[in-house]
Amino acid sequence: MEIIGYLSAIIIGLVMGLIGGGGSILSVPIFVYVFGFDAVTATALSLFVVGVTSMVGSVGFIRQQLVDFRTAFIFGIPSILGVLFSRRLVLPHLPHYIIHRWGITLTKDMFLLLLFSILMLIASFRMIRKIERPKVGKDDDINYTILISQGLLVGIVTGLIGAGGGFLIVPALVMLLGLEMKKAVATSLFIIAMNSSLGFLSTMGMVKQDWNFLLIFSGLAIVGIFVGIAISKRMDGTKLKPLFGWIVLGMGIFIIIKEIFLQ
């Protein structure tokens, strides 16, 4: 079973290299259901793996001059604030039992996994649905209020459930700024690297880390992201997004069924 988990690390990197996100959508369920970590630990480990993998992947895109640094920091600074809010203020103060009355029991782990699954469903619909890119010409045409608020939202999501937020970042960069897909993917990876790394560092003392496991898993994911970046040079990631969207949809439904009906 663990062999499947380690092989999936390569797939995580592959997906991130192709579509600029989706790593945490795969890593959190793998850490919980394959390796047996609790939800809080799984989100922390996911932040490390996604952060390191995105950082390495960003280097290649920086060399290709595909990362829009101005956009990355306008989007990224509010995201960092959102990460700090979630990891330092919200997550540590969530009670073990969110609901424990009227015959209903909702634990902290169940709540995080169900919240994660809802985000997976939203992400899957965004990936399956074809998004037409608007033409944005001047800086005056850019709605910075929406861009900054989207960055804050991504940061809160990143901090709370360990999701890098690429499934939210890429559509935002495409729809709000009119970035071409490859540039949006590259900029998304750079933002994810900042957010995820900070999210992990901010809660290092709250969970126990198995560094051997993390380094092996991250190393395999890095192999995958290099493969994904190489493929992305010859293939448009938008062609793979609908297929990945259907996979994410299935995984989201599985988590909901597992947590609600198969406890």
TrEMBL record:
<dbReference type="InterPro" id="IPR051598">
    <property type="entry name" value="TSUP/Inactive_protease-like"/>
</dbReference>
<protein>
    <recommendedName>
        <fullName>Probable membrane transporter protein</fullName>
    </recommendedName>
</protein>
<keyword id="KW-1133">Transmembrane helix</keyword>
<feature type="transmembrane region" description="Helical">
    <location>
        <begin position="110"/>
        <end position="128"/>
    </location>
</feature>
<keyword id="KW-0472">Membrane</keyword>
<dbReference type="InterPro" id="IPR002781">
    <property type="entry name" value="TM_pro_TauE-like"/>
</dbReference>
<feature type="transmembrane region" description="Helical">
    <location>
        <begin position="184"/>
        <end position="201"/>
    </location>
</feature>
<feature type="transmembrane region" description="Helical">
    <location>
        <begin position="7"/>
        <end position="34"/>
    </location>
</feature>
<feature type="transmembrane region" description="Helical">
    <location>
        <begin position="40"/>
        <end position="62"/>
    </location>
</feature>
<comment type="similarity">
    <text>Belongs to the 4-toluene sulfonate uptake permease (TSUP) (TC 2.A.102) family.</text>
</comment>
<feature type="transmembrane region" description="Helical">
    <location>
        <begin position="243"/>
        <end position="262"/>
    </location>
</feature>
<dbReference type="Pfam" id="PF01925">
    <property type="entry name" value="TauE"/>
</dbReference>
<keyword id="KW-1003">Cell membrane</keyword>
<keyword id="KW-0812">Transmembrane</keyword>
<dbReference type="GO" id="GO:0005886">
    <property type="term" value="C:plasma membrane"/>
</dbReference>
<feature type="transmembrane region" description="Helical">
    <location>
        <begin position="69"/>
        <end position="90"/>
    </location>
</feature>
<feature type="transmembrane region" description="Helical">
    <location>
        <begin position="213"/>
        <end position="231"/>
    </location>
</feature>
<feature type="transmembrane region" description="Helical">
    <location>
        <begin position="152"/>
        <end position="178"/>
    </location>
</feature>
